[in-house]
C-alpha cells in the first residue's frame, strides 16, 4: 500500500507549503546543453558542396518563381483596373447588387486576362534565361538581356516581324534596366 503522505504531497503538504516541482527536460540524458540545440545557423545549409558554390536558383525554381510572380502581379493589376472600370461604368439607377456584380465580373475578367499574359511572359523568360545559362555555362547580365530580347520576340511573333522586333527591343531594354537598377541598389544600399 502506498504511503498516505505521498498521496497528499508529502511533508510539504503537512506544513502548508506547496511541493517543489521539477521541470521535465527531455534532453537531460543526451549530455548536450539544451541551448545549443536551438542556436540554429542563419546561413542556408547544403547537402553537397557544389550547391553552396552556385548562387542561383535551379531552372525549375526559376520557372515557378517568374511564372508565379508574373501571374500574381498581373492578376492584382488587372483586378485593380477592372475595379476602376466597374466603378466608372456605374449608372445612377443601378442597385447595390448590380454594382457589386459589375465590380466582381470586371475585376475577375481583367485580372485573369492580364495575369495570364504576364504569367506566359514569365514562363518564356524563365525558360530562355535558364537555357542561356546552360548554353553559355556562365551566369551574367548577358543571359538576362538576351532572355528579355527573346521573350519579347517570341511573345509577339504571331503579330508579324515588325511587332516582334519592337517587342524584343522593349523586352531587352526592360531587362537591361532592371539588371542595371539591381546593380545600383546592391552598390549603394547595404542589404
TrEMBL record:
Predominant place of localization: membrane
UniProt key word Transmembrane helix: yes
Record InterPro entries: Tim23-like
Q: Which UniProt keywords apply?
A: Membrane, Transmembrane, Transmembrane helix
GO molecular function (one): protein transmembrane transporter activity
Localization per record:
Membrane
* Pfam families reported for this sequence: Tim17
Q: How does it sit in the membrane?
A: Multi-pass membrane protein
The answer to whether keyword Membrane applies is yes
One GO biological-process annotation of the entry reads: protein import into mitochondrial matrix
User: Record's Gene Ontology CC terms?
Assistant: TIM23 mitochondrial import inner membrane translocase complex
**Protein name according to UniProt:** Mitochondrial import inner membrane translocase subunit TIM23-2-like
Native organism is: Ananas comosus
